[in-house]
């Protein structure tokens, strides 16, 4: 067309010798080119890739709506007219003097936020060099730019944003504004969204997040360098603009560019719809009749009626079932508080629902361990996010309630840095629950036997046994009443995050007044830690706790269980083997070889010596726990160990001599040997 025009112009000039007619022809031609650059979409029902270019999250819905984004987080949507628009008359003789055309556009839109009062984020009418803004970011960048190209003159980007999120980085005035952006996300000028009713100068507020259809007009007069933006909830174009900005767009807009829309969502999302769109160069774009556009509300209303109809058909049944389930769950979850529970002093009573949620329904994946009196689960309190251990007493245990009451009334008031703290308790029907501090490093036995995940150094071992000893002194002598633990063993020594030893599991603890005689006759404890007199009298004392602590000392030094069923016959009983090595003058031969010789000889010999003193057969020959701690702290020297051979065994053999007559003992597995209890295990 241009070639024909210049041949025509040359012919006319040759005939007329004047420029008057060529100039008229040129004016007519340029005007015709400009007039040809206009389009109107009264809905997008018939739109296709030939007349609308989509990418990202933008789609055309079957009802004829252009949806730029949905309620997905951090999504971008672009929709452009696929043919570039010529914005300038191309003056080849002087490209810098190319005349910029005026332009006008009108479009109807609606923004439906995921949350009624929270936008996410917005959209913009855009004039761009390309239909693909591949490097653009979502959220506050509206799918237009990214952090690296914000403010670059080479962007050649013009946008009128309709923003529903106030972003302080880009100096947004509020979360409901219209702004003009030139190569930048910081608006050159912005105003709060509003409109002037027809032929009225009284501005009225307009909420972009209302979900209602709004029509926008963007007009640029290149002769006056005047940009104006208008909004209205009706089909009538207001007389007065809400935004008027004097700006020369010649440096921004190139000869030909693409027009369209860009939108994005952030952490919160909004669905951005375009209902219709018109555009024109050098003239006023056609105002859209909102009544002739696809209706979002009608479609939504139909869906709502359908959903309502289906819901009403089920509502009576659901109401009946829901009420029945509610009443059943309420009865099921009711916690009956008995008289004796009112007398429990000290620990906090947790709601059963809170512990059920903390342990995720007492699922096996949260199981830490179990024994004869119940299982222990890991949990996280919902509100404080504190990690806890919940001991759930087995309902089938005949002694469960009695032991539960003992534990609550006793340990709930005990406070010592080397005791596992009882945080609270709960009872619902047959579920008896105790809540403890969670010990992240587990129990001591897992670091001593078989193939431990970590080899404890001697310094760590020595600190642990001194801590446990201090805890036992508190139980025996320093609290208001004497507490006999009755199940001191490596499995009941728990390690906190700093590898401090804490004595736990007071399920077998019994409470006595100072100086009173224990009245129980039931033999409880774990084989290998039981004092000899318990098999005859069945009466636990502080001396029987001392005996068990002696076995623990030897375990820690040797890295072996009190009864090692896979060992050589002479090494089966740990205390007898240690006695024998002490007698022949080779006590260091019993030290755990995994230490690799890295230990203090004096400390190790002292611990072995104290362990043997605690293992004396006669309870009156054993030191008290206070004496034991003084030995370990080297406040006083431990007395000599006297080796005395007993009938049926060696050294302080005690009740172990009877084991040699058990013909089936060697077939018992390690796990059984380590956990077997005369009272049924733990």
UniProtKB/TrEMBL annotation:
One of its GO terms (biological process) is defense response to bacterium. Pfam families: Lectin_legB (PF00139), Pkinase (PF00069). The chain crosses the membrane at residues 306-328. ATP binds at residue 391. Residues 362-642 form the Protein kinase domain. It is a single-pass type I membrane protein. InterPro entries: ConA-like_dom_sf (IPR013320), Kinase-like_dom_sf (IPR011009), L-type_Lectin-RKs (IPR050528), Legume_lectin_dom (IPR001220), Prot_kinase_dom (IPR000719), Protein_kinase_ATP_BS (IPR017441), Ser/Thr_kinase_AS (IPR008271). Gene3D superfamilies: 2.60.120.200, Phosphorylase Kinase, domain 1 (3.30.200.20), Transferase(Phosphotransferase) domain 1 (1.10.510.10). Signal peptide: none annotated. Keywords: ATP-binding, Cell membrane, Glycoprotein, Kinase, Lectin, Membrane, Nucleotide-binding, Plant defense, Receptor, Serine/threonine-protein kinase, Signal, Transferase, Transmembrane, Transmembrane helix. It comes from the Eukaryota. GO terms for cellular component: plasma membrane. Its main location: membrane. It is an enzyme of class 2 (transferase). It catalyses: L-threonyl-[protein] + ATP = O-phospho-L-threonyl-[protein] + ADP + H(+); L-seryl-[protein] + ATP = O-phospho-L-seryl-[protein] + ADP + H(+). It is found in: Cell membrane; Membrane. Its EC number is 2.7.11.1. GO terms for molecular function: ATP binding; carbohydrate binding; protein serine/threonine kinase activity. In the N-terminal section; belongs to the leguminous lectin family. This is non-specific serine/threonine protein kinase. It comes from Sphenostylis stenocarpa.
């Amino acid at each position: 067309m241009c070639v024909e025009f210049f041949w025509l112009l040359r012919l006319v000039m040759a005939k007329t010798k004047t420029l008057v007619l060529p100039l008229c022809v040129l004016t007519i031609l340029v005007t015709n080119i400009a007039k040809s650059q206009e389009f109107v979409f009264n809905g997008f029902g018939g739109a296709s890739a030939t007349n609308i270019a989509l990418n990202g999250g933008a789609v055309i819905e079957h009802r004829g709506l252009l949806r730029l984004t949905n309620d997905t987080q951090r999504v971008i949507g672009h929709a452009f007219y696929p043919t570039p628009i010529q914005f300038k008359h191309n003056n080849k003789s002087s490209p810098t003097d190319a005349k910029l055309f005026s332009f006008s556009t009108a479009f109807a839109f609606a923004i439906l936020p995921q949350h009624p009062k929270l936008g996410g984020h917005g959209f913009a009418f855009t004039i761009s060099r390309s239909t693909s803004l591949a490097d653009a970011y979502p959220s506050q960048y509206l799918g237009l730019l990214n952090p690296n190209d914000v403010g670059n003159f080479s962007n050649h980007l013009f946008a009128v944003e309709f923003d529903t999120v106030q972003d302080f980085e880009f100096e947004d005035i509020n979360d409901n504004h219209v702004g003009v952006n030139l190569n930048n996300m910081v608006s050159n000028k912005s105003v709060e969204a509003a409109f002037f009713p027809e032929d009225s100068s009284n501005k009225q507020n307009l909420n972009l997040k209302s979900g209602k259809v709004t029509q926008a007009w963007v007009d640029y007069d290149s002769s006056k360098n005047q940009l104006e933006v208008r909004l209205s909830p009706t089909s009538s174009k207001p007389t007065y603009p809400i935004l008027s900005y004097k700006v020369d767009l010649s440096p921004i807009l190139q000869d030909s560019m693409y027009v369209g829309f860009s939108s994005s969502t952030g952490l919160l999302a909004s669905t951005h719809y375009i209902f219709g769109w018109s555009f024109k160069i050098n003239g006023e774009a056609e105002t859209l009749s909102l009544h002739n556009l696809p209706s979002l509300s009608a479609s939504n209303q139909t869906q709502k009626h359908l959903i309502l109809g289906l819901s009403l058909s089920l509502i009576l049944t659901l109401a009946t079932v829901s009420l029945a389930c509610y009443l059943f769950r309420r009865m099921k979850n009711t916690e009956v508080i008995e008289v004796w529970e009112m007398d429990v002093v000290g620990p906090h009573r947790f709601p059963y629902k809170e512990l059920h949620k903390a342990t995720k329904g007492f699922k096996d994946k949260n199981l830490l361990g179990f024994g004869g009196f119940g299982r222990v689960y890991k949990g996280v309190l919902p509100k404080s996010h504190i990690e806890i251990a919940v001991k759930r007493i087995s309902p089938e245990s005949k002694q469960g309630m009695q032991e539960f009451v003992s534990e609550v009334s006793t340990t709930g008031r005990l406070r010592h840095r080397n005791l596992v703290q009882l945080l609270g308790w709960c009872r619902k029907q047959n579920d008896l629950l105790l809540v403890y501090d969670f010990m992240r490093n587990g129990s001591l036995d897992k670091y001593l036997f078989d193939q431990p995940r970590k080899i404890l150094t001697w310094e760590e071992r020595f600190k642990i046994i001194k801590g446990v000893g201090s805890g036992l002194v508190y139980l025996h002598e320093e609290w208001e009443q004497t507490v006999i633990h009755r199940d001191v063993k490596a499995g009941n020594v728990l390690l906190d995050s700093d590898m401090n030893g804490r004595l736990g599991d007071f399920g077998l603890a019994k409470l006595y007044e100072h100086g009173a005689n224990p009245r129980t006759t039931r033999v409880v404890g774990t084989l290998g830690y039981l004092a000899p007199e318990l098999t005859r009298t069945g009466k636990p004392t502080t001396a029987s706790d001392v005996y068990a602590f002696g076995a623990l000392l030897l375990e820690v030094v040797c890295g072996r269980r009190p009864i090692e069923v896979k060992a050589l016959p002479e090494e089966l009983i740990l205390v007898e083997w240690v006695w024998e090595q002490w007698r022949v003058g080779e006590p260091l031969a019993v030290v755990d070889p995994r230490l690799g010789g890295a230990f203090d000889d004096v400390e190790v010999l002292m611990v072995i010596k104290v362990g043997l003193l605690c293992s004396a057969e006669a309870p009156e020959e054993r030191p008290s726990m206070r004496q034991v701690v003084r030995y370990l702290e080297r406040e006083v020297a431990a007395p000599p160990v006297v080796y005395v051979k007993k009938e049926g065994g060696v050294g302080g053999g005690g009740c172990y001599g009877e084991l040699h007559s058990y013909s089936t003992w060697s077939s018992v597995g390690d796990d059984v040997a380590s956990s077997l209890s005369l009272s049924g295990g733990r």
